[in-house]
Design goal:
By secondary structure, the chain is mainly α. It has one domain (6-292). It contains twelve helices and no strands. Helix 1 (6-31) packs antiparallel against helix 9, helix 1 crosses helix 11 and helix 2 (36-57) crosses helix 9 (218-244). The longest helix is centred in the C-terminal third of the chain and has 27 residues, at 218-244.
Length: 294
């Protein structure tokens, strides 16, 4: 692909960092009343349909059949495995532990990109930045939010680890797999594939049948709409960054998102923001700067 402009890169990173960071709080409000697989499935199906329709209307060529297979694989790895499993697991484990485990994503992405055929070994500066960034996230998490004195749910924690590995695999595969030349068409096809599997899981597990739509509050419904609209734009931006930048740089969202979520939680949900949190967030930013400036 042609060399992207700095403005395009900055806008894409801003979307991934800021918008995805804000969806933590929105998802928290949404899954309090809406089943996680249903919420994620409808979100991706609606957004995917819009992305595909707009891409075709704007002149994108209709994709050959085998592109549905490659984009479907990416969608299942990232939307179903990555997003869906994390949403489900947060019903079983504290959000702090979830954030800490998701913080391993940049490591898995860098490792997967290195171990693939003709892979790229991350430079020392990038490795240092990844270590510093993860250290900041680890320090940011309150010990009481990762289980405290009580035992950690092994199934929930294991699900997040599996989700992180699937997301990393999908991220690296997305960078090299055959896909439509239209980025937004490809993103839409991935969302449709992942969303369809999420909806199937929702129906087969019976969670969708238990939902009483009349009991869903305006807050939960609004959060759902926000995640579907803006979260999908961030998802598309992330997929573009995987090709325009490097997988390791794109994956630094996993460090910045908890910081953004912490700030928004303080502003909108009366959550505590301490000097310690601010210091840890600064460590995260230093680590991210080391990665993205290389």
């Amino acid at each position: 692909m042609t060399q992207p402009s700095r403005i395009s890169l900055a806008a894409a990173f801003a979307a991934v960092y800021l918008i995805w960071g804000s969806t933590y709080l929105a998802i928290r409000w949404g899954v309090a009343e809406i089943p996680p697989f249903l919420m994620a499935g409808v979100r991706f199906l609606v957004a995917g349909t819009v992305f595909v329709a707009l891409a075709l209307r704007w002149g994108a060529a209709r994709p050959p059949a085998y592109y549905w297979l490659t984009t479907g694989i990416i969608g299942v790895l990232m939307a179903t495995g990555g997003n869906g499993l994390v949403s489900w697991s947060l019903q079983r484990i504290p959000s702090g532990l979830g954030a800490l485990l998701v913080g391993m994503v940049p490591f898995w992405v860098a490792l997967a990109d290195w171990l693939r055929p003709r892979g790229t070994r991350p430079p020392a500066q990038v490795i240092l930045g990844l270590v510093i960034g993860f250290t900041g996230v680890a320090l940011l998490v309150n010990p009481s939010d990762i289980g405290g004195e009580r035992s950690v749910d092994v199934v929930g924690a294991g699900a997040v680890i599996v989700a992180s590995l699937l997301w990393a695999a999908g991220s690296v595969y997305s960078r090299y797999a055959p896909q439509p030349s239209s980025h937004w068409l490809s993103a839409g096809m991935q969302m449709l594939g992942g969303g369809a599997v999420l909806m199937a899981i929702s129906v087969l597990s019976g969670e969708s049948a238990k939902l009483d739509w009349s009991a869903v509050s305006h807050t939960a419904f609004g959060a759902w709409i926000y995640v579907a609209a803006f979260g999908s734009v961030a998802y598309g931006s992330y997929l573009w960054l995987l090709k325009a930048s490097t997988p390791a740089k794109a994956a630094t969202y996993a460090y910045v998102n908890p910081v953004i979520a912490l700030i928004l939680g303080y502003l909108l949900a009366d959550e505590t923001l301490t000097l310690w949190s601010f210091g840890c967030s600064t460590v995260v930013v230093i680590g991210v700067l080391l990665v993205v400036s290389r």
